[in-house]
Amino acid sequence: MTALKNDRFLRALLKQPVDVTPVWMMRQAGRYLPEYRASRAKAGDFMSLCMNPEFACEVTLQPLDRYPQLDAAILFSDILTIPDAMGQGLYFETGEGPRFKKVVSTLADIEALPIPDPHKDLGYVMDAVSTIRRELNGRVPLIGFSGSPWTLATYMVEGGSSKDYRKTKTMLYDNPQALHLLLDKLAQTVTSYLNGQIMAGAQAVQIFDSWGGSLSAAAYQEFSLAYMKKIVSGLIREHEGRKVPVILFTKGGGLWLESIADAGADALGLDWTCDIGSARDRVGSKVALQGNMDPTVLYAKPEVIRTEVGRILASYGKGSGHVFNLGHGITPEVNPEHAGAFLRAVHELSAQYHE
Fold it and tell me: Three-state secondary structure along 59-115?
């Protein structure tokens, strides 16, 4: 494999010295970019984009071509490829988001779910990873990812997106045996799926626990964090002669940072509701931190964006162990010029913290 020309993202995740704070954006390949919208129109629909390795590679590289400041690429895919591979029948309704033809609502439904083979049932994702890695040619590291078991389970039980996770939480309290079985199957699947991505060329992996913050403190420990710990313990942590860092990101998880820091990952993702300096004080040197600007700041003027970047960098303070990111994904209405101003500001303003 080609040597990395820019490895500051991987170095920061391992708390090694860097020249500037590395930066990437969740959903950096997405609808805010006109080139992405053109590729999606060419592909026909979202899933055709995900399931074609050449298209997935094309859109993964688009933000890197536009923004030379990006320090990582992230695989273009979707967290719901796993439930789809388990036979749920994923489809997208215009304006409605993801939907499933089948839902799981009973223990029998869950017992019948297969555990997919990442190479056979999700081979198109592995092909996309290897294609992207080849085309990157060492420019920056490639991030692989998956949804967390809890987050995936909410879609499978609800049949799509939900505001209150009523069906999933009812199962949690009324039929915990069934939910635990589902989460265990998902943990096994996510582990093999991420290991498949690592073997195909992903150089770091992130677990998106998008809806973990909807749980009570006790339920989060039992039904979300416990299964992420299980995944982390089963991941390949060294490949191609270097460490493969693992990032855990629970949106709304700021109350539980100490517990998440004990889960065995190398870094924690923070949403924008946490102060990153306080988070650093709480977790100490145990993990690196990723985040955490409010994505809506990107609607503001470039000088305002720059001020907010400076504030977050100052809050984290001197030293490595910080990967700058948004506190959640960039939104479709953002002006691409504003995203560029954000990325430039991170590199320009962060050098002083790495002397």
Answer: HHHHHHHHCCCCCCEECCCCCCHHHHHHHHCEEEECCCEEEECCCCCCHHHHHCCCC
Say if residues 258 and 23 touch (Cβ distance below 8 Å).
Answer: no
CB contact at 8 A, 220 and 256: yes
Taking the C-alpha atoms of residue 28 and residue 18, their distance in angstroms, rounded to an integer, is: 22
Spatial distance between the Cα atoms of 288 and 18, rounded to a whole number of angstroms: 13
Q: Which of 135, 152, 7, 15 is nearest to 78 (CA)?
A: 152
251 three-class SS: coil
pLDDT(287) > 70: yes
Integer Rg of the chain from CA: 19
The Cα 114–Cα 109 span in angstroms is: 10
Q: What is the pLDDT of residues 63-94, one digit of tens each?
A: 999 999 999 999 999 999 999 999 999 888 76
Coil, strand or helix at 104? coil
CA angle 70, 273, 355 (to 5 degrees): 45
Q: Give residue-wise pLDDT tens across range 86-133.
A: 999 988 876 668 889 999 999 999 999 999 999 999 999 999 999 999
Question: From residue 233, how far is each of 82, 94, 196 by CA, in Å?
Answer: 20, 38, 15
What is the pLDDT confidence band of residue 160, given thresholds at 50, 70 and 90? confident
Instruction: Say what the pLDDT of residue 95 is.
Output: 67
For the chain, list the domains and their CATH numbers. Answer: 8-354 (3.20.20.210)
Other beta carbons within 10 Å of 95: 5
**Bridge partner residues of 97 (DSSP):** 93
Q: Which residues are catalytic?
A: 27, 31, 40, 78, 155
| 123 within 8 A of 51, measured Cβ to Cβ | no
For residues 20-29, give the mean pLDDT.
97
Distance CA 53, CA 144 (A): 14
pLDDT of residue 240: 94
Residues 277 and 270 sit within 8 Å (Cβ to Cβ): no
As a whole number of angstroms, the distance between CA 347 and CA 355 comes to 13
Structural tokens at position 36: 């992405």
Phi, psi of 235 (to 5 degrees): -85, 150
Q: Is 183 helix (H, G, I), strand (E, B) or coil?
A: helix
**Hey, what are 325's tokens?**
């990111």
Does 31 score more than 80 pLDDT? yes
